[in-house]
Amino acid sequence: MAIIRKKIIAVSGSLRSNSVNELLLSYLAEHYQESLDIQLYNRIAELPHFNPDLDTENLPVSVREFREAIEAADGIIICTPEYVFSLPGVLKNALEWTVSTTIFSGKPVALIVASGQGEKAYEALILIMNTLGARIGEHAKLLISGARSKINRQGNIPDEFTAKELDTLIQSLLETIKDKPPVLNLV
């Protein structure tokens, strides 16, 4: 019997090309390609500044496409740096475009903060995703401090502990997807 790969949307909070966060997501896409179809959603910079007045039936196309990508996925991986003790504005903006929806409600999500320090962004990301109703597995949260020393520019992870932690994170995400309660279609 063929393995059905789970569709995962991966969002990097960094706009820098070849950022540590993008390299981490590419690493995950390559190393878990047998069980996961990880697609990097790299268009959050195209989202307009969040404005509740624009959150109507005539949504900006970029917002509609972002929401549709999140909704269609079996799970989400967010990997972000920390900027000035918080989340990058572009990632927070993207998440704000989902507050009037339920697309993260019950959605299996894994969270990675990979930065120099990262504690404040880690706390903020967990708070925001819990507020949005995401299902975050027990081991689907990871803080990688000193990230530049743990992943190289070729996208390899020479740090054995970090590689094991990423494996634990992916296994937790897969378990959360597997245990996802069915969607009730109440007509």
CATH class: Alpha Beta
CATH topology: Rossmann fold
Helix content: 25-40%
Element order, helices and strands? EHEHEHEHEH
> Could you say which overall geometry the principal axes of the C-alpha atoms support?
globular
Query: Count of DSSP E strands?
Result: 5
Unreliable spans are none
Write up this protein.
- InterPro entries: Flavoprotein-like_sf, FMN_Rdtase-like_dom, NAD(P)H-dep_reductase.
- One of its GO terms (molecular function) is FMN binding.
- This protein is α/β, with parallel strands linked by helices.
- The protein has one domain (6-178): 3-Layer(aba) Sandwich (Rossmann fold), CATH 3.40.50.
- It is built from five helices and five strands.
- Strands 2-1-3-4-5 form a five-stranded parallel sheet, with helices on both faces.
- It starts with 5 loop residues before the first strand and ends in a 9-residue tail after the last helix.
Please sum up the structure shown:
With 187 residues, the protein is of the alpha/beta class. 34% of the residues lie in helices and 20% in strands. The protein has 5 helices and 5 strands.
Defining traits:
single chain, 187 residues, alpha/beta, Rossmann fold, five-stranded parallel sheet
